[in-house]
Specification:
- By secondary structure, the protein is of the alpha/beta class.
- It has 2 domains: about 25-245 and about 435-500, Rossmann fold (3-Layer(aba) Sandwich); about 260-430, 3-Layer(aba) Sandwich (Rossmann fold).
- It is built from 17 helices and 16 strands.
- The strands form 3 sheets. It has an 8-stranded mixed beta sheet with strand order 5-6-4-3-7-8-9-10, sandwiched between helices.
- β12 (about 300-310), α9 (about 315-320) and β13 (about 325-330) form a beta-alpha-beta unit.
- The protein starts with about 25 loop residues before the first strand and ends with a helix.
Length: about 500
């Protein structure tokens, strides 16, 4: 269950209003100026940022802009936009750029964009971007900031954020949207069955665990992902939950979606998938379900609409060319997302079995907010299964027959769809609230910035040897003005029992 703050949401400042004057004073023994006012200077490292229209970019952008609207000075170091098309985005330089967007200073750094993404090419892309992002990130930290926040993906760049925080003498926060290493091996992007594969998996997972333990705060987007952080050795008192959210503009449509007329779908039942078309999405299940239902009596008007961009589109076009009940469309403008999601009679959320326990798909929030039921693939006891329960149907990962039958059951039951859709909308409002998430992040950042550094963290060698934990590298003296907004997260010794889905 989402931790909901008990404080009022911060009042956004008008963009036209002048920012408050800030008086600076030097702390004793420090060469970095810090503001006396409560306006924070925040540095965020995130590879994906607006105008990328899907995935992590939406939430990194929303968080940065939300914090800026609260009056904080926010700098984001991001990549030149490229996702989900895996191609340079028109209107943006392939090199470095520095501009102000919606109250946020955005520094974009170059990186290679593989035309045919593979695991090796993705690693090279992230490493190259980390190298190009290091100079502006470190320079900004040296100029004086109050906290550094890194977003994973891309985990390969997180050490640069950690170095920037240490350079500035400020706390470092890592926000985990996706356990990349396990997802890569779980989805089969790298074969871990052979000796070399096992060595690669061990090295990647070891790097990830050591990296996580070095940050002063580590957050994830669901309770199950918090449990996995504890399983990886992150101290419970450092773990936080920072949820994604549903877009405020997404709500049930009062009438038919305009897309029905535009795409010739009037009078047809629509099973919709919208988002990235990648390896983890398991879209072959949607294709197989469409094939199984194409000739089933009573479902002649059921159409599968897959809308998005990514490496899997070419394969979907080739393998689904003979299906009369399949419609493929490119990703639609973000401004029309509400109309697109309102096209659905039911939403599809397939995931491959190996990645199903490691991420909580960000698209789920907007699916629920649209007031339509969801058919998802997830193992029993996972976070995704818990989120969809009562708002749709869940089938085992990889079981195309069960997936098709669940779609057929909902398509044939309009009253059930309506009831589950109402429950989905209610859940989006209670668990996936944007203002609550941003207010929680702001309070945590204030608490971190209000305390002083006193002791180093124990080395990994000491931790692995079972030595008693020493004080954390940035343990903070308690301040009555900035109490810790959350109690420590409970350690979960066996994350599988709690559901490994994050």
């Amino acid at each position: 269950m989402t931790r909901r703050p008990t404080f009022p949401a911060p009042t956004p400042l008008s963009r036209a209003a002048p920012l408050p004057d800030v008086a600076y004073a030097f702390e004793e023994g420090s060469v970095f100026a810090r503001p006396r006012a409560d306006r924070l200077r925040l540095l965020i490292l995130g590879m994906n940022y607006a105008p990328e229209p899907v995935g992590v970019a939406i939430y990194t952008t929303g968080l940065a802009q939300g914090l800026a609207a609260c009056g904080h000075e926010v700098t984001v170091v991001a990549a030149t936009p490229w996702y989900p098309a895996w191609a340079p985005m028109p209107g943006h330089s392939r090199g470095w750029s520095d501009r102000r967007e919606d109250g946020v200073r955005v520094i974009r750094c170059p990186h290679p964009i593989p035309a045919r993404p593979s695991a090796a090419r993705r690693i090279l892309q992230q490493a190259s971007w980390a190298a190009s992002a290091a100079p502006p990130l470190l320079a900004r930290a040296a100029a004086g900031v109050d906290a550094v926040l890194a977003v994973a993906p891309a985990a390969l760049a997180a050490p640069v954020a950690l170095a920037a925080a240490r350079l500035g003498g400020v706390p470092a926060w890592l926000h985990v949207q996706d356990f990349e290493a396990e997802a890569v091996f779980g989805a089969g992007l790298i074969d871990s069955r052979g000796r070399l594969g096992r060595l690669a998996a061990g090295a990647a997972l070891g790097f990830e665990a050591r990296l996580l333990r070095r940050f002063d705060r580590v957050s994830a987007i669901s309770p199950a992902m918090r449990a996995k952080l504890a399983q990886k050795g992150v101290a419970p008192e450092r773990i936080r939950e920072l949820r994604n959210w549903a877009e405020d503009a997404i709500r049930p449509l009062e009438g038919p979606s305009p897309y029905r007329a535009e795409w010739g779908l009037e009078g047809r039942r629509v099973a919709l998938y919208s988002g990235n078309l990648g390896a983890k999405q398991g879209l072959h299940l949607a294709l197989e379900a469409a094939r199984r239902l194409a000739d089933r009596p009573g479902f002649e008007d059921l159409v599968f609409v897959i809308c998005g961009e990514g490496p899997a589109m070419a394969r979907l076009r080739a393998e689904g060319a003979d299906l009369p009940n399949l419609v493929l469309r490119p990703l639609q403008p973000m401004a029309r997302l509400g109309e697109l999601l309102g096209l659905a009679d039911l939403h599809l959320l397939p995931q491959v079995a190996g990645a199903a326990d490691l991420v909580l798909p960000s698209k789920l929030a907007n699916m629920l907010a649209s007031g339509r039921p969801v058919v998802a693939t997830a193992a029993e006891g996972t976070q995704l299964a818990a989120e969809v329960a009562g708002c749709g149907m869940v089938t085992p990962p990889g079981d195309a027959a069960a997936f098709a039958d669940a779609i057929a059951s909902l398509a044939a039951a309009p009253r059930m769809r309506a009831a589950l859709g109402q429950a989905a909308r209610a859940r989006a409002l209670t668990r996936w609230d944007r203002a609550s998430a941003i207010a929680s992040a702001e309070l945590e950042l204030r608490a971190m910035a209000a305390r002083s550094r006193i002791a180093p963290r124990p080395t990994d060698r000491a931790i692995e040897a079972g030595a008693p934990p020493a004080p954390a590298p940035l343990r903070y003296a308690e301040s009555a003005a900035a109490p810790d907004p959350w109690p420590p997260a409970a350690a979960v010794p066996d994350a599988r029992r709690a559901g490994r889905r994050g």
